[in-house]
């Protein structure tokens, strides 16, 4: 009876051990299967994609700036003296050569009279020396000194005559008196500001342009211009200056001349619209992809395309760049799926998982 019980215990123990072994093997198989699935998932790189598509690019480029006068001058005095009359006021329009103020000239006229008297004496003295030299009464050096004194006397008369003319202060540019710095009785010296004159019959819209756009511009090219105070009006401007050097922000200053027939003021805000309407490609359907799709920048001409969940490094030929869009001339077809983010983790043949 005892031996039967012992045999029963052995059988039960064997069954328990067998069951335990079976359970362990079954759990190990499931674990290996799960690990394989995880490894397969970890080998896939998450990326964002987009499709290459045909579109019409609007490559008009807008740059904002301010209007400046075509001419601007802080008009200075050329001589010393006291202001007698001021003939114009702020807001008045003046023309080149117009007298705008007069300076007291009594003392200068006295100097002119003295210079003329000195000239008469120099003429008489020189005549004596000329006659004396013919008879040998004076040396050649004495005659040369007399001639030099005569020249100096004539130059002094001309100089004093110019000073008298300068007492009539005349505008050197046409424009509007923007600021008047003097009053009758003011004492001025050479270089003292008298008036600020601005010419706003034409204005210059001063803007800056990026290096990508500057290559498409040329002096004399017509440009559409708008002003913030006249949002519904469009003006025609002409590029008058393109800077040969970029500024501190790596943009290029450009000036656009605009005829001022609408009452624009210098200092107002305006916008220049650099249009591609003259471009042979304007209005043409182009196959484009985002600039972000390129590996290490557009200049690399390389993108990753996705085929069967696999990234393939592809060489393309690019055309125009408009904003964030790049034209693809060859290398891709419409509907091709290209990677836009995650390229840093990719090599040719990497498995990818597209994240929507």
Automatic annotation (TrEMBL):
Residues 287-354 form the YknX-like C-terminal permuted SH3-like domain. GO terms for cellular component: efflux pump complex. Gene3D superfamilies: 2.40.30.170, 2.40.420.20, 2.40.50.100, Helix hairpin bin. The keyword Secreted does not apply. One of its GO terms (molecular function) is efflux transmembrane transporter activity. Residues 77-198 form the Multidrug resistance protein MdtA-like barrel-sandwich hybrid domain. Residues 205-276 form the CusB-like beta-barrel domain. Keywords: Coiled coil, Membrane, Transmembrane, Transmembrane helix. The chain crosses the membrane at residues 6-24. It holds the Pfam family Beta-barrel_RND_2. The keyword Hydrolase does not apply. Residues 105-160 form a coiled coil. Belongs to the membrane fusion protein (MFP) (TC 8.A.1) family. This is RND family efflux transporter, MFP subunit. It comes from Algoriella xinjiangensis.
């Amino acid at each position: 009876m005892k031996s039967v019980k012992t045999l029963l215990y052995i059988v039960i123990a064997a069954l328990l051990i067998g069951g335990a072994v079976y359970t362990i093997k079954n759990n190990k198989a499931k674990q290996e299967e799960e690990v394989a699935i995880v490894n397969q998932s970890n080998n896939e790189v998450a990326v964002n994609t987009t499709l290459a598509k045909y579109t019409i690019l609007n490559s008009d480029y807008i740059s904002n700036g301010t209007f400046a006068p075509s001419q601007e001058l802080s008009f200075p005095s050329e001589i010393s003296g006291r202001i007698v009359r001021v003939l114009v006021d702020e807001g008045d329009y003046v023309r080149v050569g117009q007298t705008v103020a007069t300076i007291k000239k009594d003392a200068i006229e006295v100097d002119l009279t003295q210079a003329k008297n000195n000239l008469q004496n120099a003429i008489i003295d020189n005549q004596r020396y000329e006659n004396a030299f013919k008879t040998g009464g004076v040396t050649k050096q004495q005659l040369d000194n007399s001639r030099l004194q005569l020249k100096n006397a004539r130059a002094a008369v001309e100089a004093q005559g110019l000073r008298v003319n300068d007492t009539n202060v005349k505008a050197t540019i046409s424009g509007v008196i923007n600021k008047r710095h003097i009053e009758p009785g003011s004492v001025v010296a050479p270089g003292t500001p008298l008036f600020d004159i601005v010419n706003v019959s034409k204005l210059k819209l001063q803007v800056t342009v990026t290096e990508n756009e500057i290559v498409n511009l040329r002096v004399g090219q017509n440009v559409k211009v708008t002003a913030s105070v006249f949002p519904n009006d469009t003006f025609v401007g002409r590029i008058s200056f393109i800077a040969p050097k970029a500024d501190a922000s790596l943009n290029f200053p450009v000036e656009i001349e605009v005829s001022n027939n609408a009452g624009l003021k210098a200092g107002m805000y305006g916008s220049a619209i650099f249009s591609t309407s003259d471009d042979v490609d304007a209005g043409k359907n182009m196959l484009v992809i985002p600039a972000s799709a390129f590996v290490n920048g557009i200049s690399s001409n390389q993108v990753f395309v996705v085929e069967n969940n696999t990234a393939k490094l592809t060489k393309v030929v690019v055309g125009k760049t408009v904003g964030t869009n790049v034209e693809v001339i060859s290398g891709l077809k419409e509907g091709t799926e290209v990677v836009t983010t995650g390229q840093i983790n990719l090599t040719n043949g990497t498995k990818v998982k597209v994240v929507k």
